[in-house]
UniProtKB/TrEMBL annotation:
Top-level lineage group: Bacteria
Location of the HTH arsR-type domain: 276-368
PANTHER family associated with the record: TRANSCRIPTIONAL REGULATOR, ARSR FAMILY, TRANSCRIPTIONAL REPRESSOR SDPR
PROSITE patterns per record: HTH_ARSR_2
Key word Ubl conjugation present: no
InterPro entries referenced in this protein's UniProt entry, alphabetically: ArsR-like_HTH (IPR011991), DUF5937 (IPR045981), HTH_ArsR_DNA-bd_dom (IPR001845), HTH_MetalResp_TranReg (IPR051081), WH-like_DNA-bd_sf (IPR036388), WH_DNA-bd_sf (IPR036390)
Pfam family name, one: HTH_20
Residues annotated as signal peptide: none
Keyword terms: DNA-binding, Transcription, Transcription regulation
Molecular function, one GO term: DNA binding
Protein name: Biofilm growth-associated repressor
Encoding gene (name): bigR
């Protein structure tokens, strides 16, 4: 499973690395709504929450489906501007001006992404004009509570009013807490953008993408970017560009905007605690499957304590050597064992470092 971006014919000058204050505010709102996704931000979340005006906190709940699951493409409005080459603004106000350039259909469809399950990377009808989609959006919003139903109804019946509400809400968040946060983070993001831009110029797109994340790769023909994620999707730059947008608040999320008709965007975390080479989704699934078998779990109990030969394990577990070998082969293929030779004996041992990382690897994999 992966998200693919076709970049055939993409000119080097159409690749840009630029931070976005509105995108970072979207990630800040997500972290405030789901602090469990971001264990490294607990201190920041606690501090902001303690100082938050109750009225603003109440408004955050009113439309939190825009940022609770992840955050809506509305926080990356530059990608939806016609021409698909627009860069993020330097300020919240400039990004909001770009948000105003989206059509009502673009605004509503992006806002309903998480409650309507509408076509994302293919062309489809708009909830503003399709009665069935409108009904589905309201039904799904109902499962999130009466506030979300009221917001969805207002969104569908009066988009201009909702757009004005969101703009005012963002401006109030900036004044309440985000201006201070952005003043601290913008320097790190600008430095990362300069570094990635320098890599683009000196070593090319493949090196820059590797620096973005080991989960992002470019094929040998340099026509397709693949992002290893627990999900599928596709997009194309076409006549437009490709944006790399760094975030300081985003780990473990590596987001790919691949909405139909929008400029593709890689929204990636900087300064993250992720491993230099985190396991791919396929490797993670292989390891989880390998450990799920009861016999292999019992083998791991011994192999975690010491190194054993196949014959020793067979004797302890009352199984034949070929049976033990098959189970060891599965564990080894999953990268969970180390082996070493001592004379004519081959000793197997559990790589406890890899196993200890599985919890964080699993979390990173499913939230990536």
């Amino acid at each position: 499973m992966s998200v693919r971006i076709d970049i055939t014919g993409l000119r080097p000058e159409r690749v840009a690395v630029v931070a976005s204050p509105l995108a970072e505010l979207g990630m800040a709102l997500h972290a405030l709504a789901e602090p469990g996704h971001h264990p490294g931000l607990q201190g920041w979340v606690t501090g902001v929450t303690a100082r938050l005006d109750p009225h603003l906190a109440d408004r955050m709940c009113e439309a939190d489906f825009l940022w609770r699951t992840t955050f809506s493409d509305l926080f990356l409005p530059f990608a939806g501007v016609p021409g698909r080459t627009t860069l993020p603004g330097a300020t919240i106000a400039e990004d909001l001006d770009l948000l105003d350039k989206l059509t009502d259909e673009q605004f509503v469809d992006a806002a309903l992404e998480f409650t309507c399950a509408m076509p994302y990377y293919s062309h489809g009808p708009s909830a503003l004009s399709d009665t069935a989609l409108r009904r589905r959006a309201l039904e799904l919003a109902a499962s999130r509570g009466p506030r979300q139903v009221r917001f969805a109804e207002r969104l569908l019946t009066d988009p201009p009013r909702t757009r004005a509400w969101l703009r005012q809400f963002v401006e109030d968040c900036e004044e309440a807490f985000f201006a201070d946060t952005w003043s601290r983070l913008s320097h790190q993001l600008a430095a990362d953008a300069r570094h990635k831009t320098d890599l683009l110029r000196r070593k090319g797109l493949a090196e820059a993408l590797t620096a973005v994340s080991p989960a992002v790769t470019l094929d040998e023909a340099e026509t397709r970017i693949t992002v290893d994620k627990l999900g599928s999707g596709h997009s194309a730059t076409g006549e437009g560009g490709l944006l790399l947008v760094p975030t300081s608040l985003g780990w473990p999320h590596l987001s790919v905007l691949h909405r139909y008709g929008w400029q593709p965007v890689l929204h990636y975390p900087v300064g993250s605690p992720e491993l230099a080479s985190p396991p791919s989704v396929e490797e993670l699934a292989l390891r989880m499957t390998a450990l799920s078998h009861p016999v292999r779990m019992r083998l791991c109990r011994h192999l975690a304590r010491s190194a054993y030969t196949t014959s020793e394990l067979a004797q302890v577990h009352g199984m034949t050597a070929p049976e033990i070998s098959r189970h060891l082969s599965v564990l080894k293929k999953a990268g969970l064992l180390t082996t070493r030779r001592r004379g004519r004996y081959v000793l197997h041992q559990l790589d406890v470092t890899v196993v200890a990382r599985l919890g964080s690897d699993f979390l990173e994999g499913i939230l990536r």
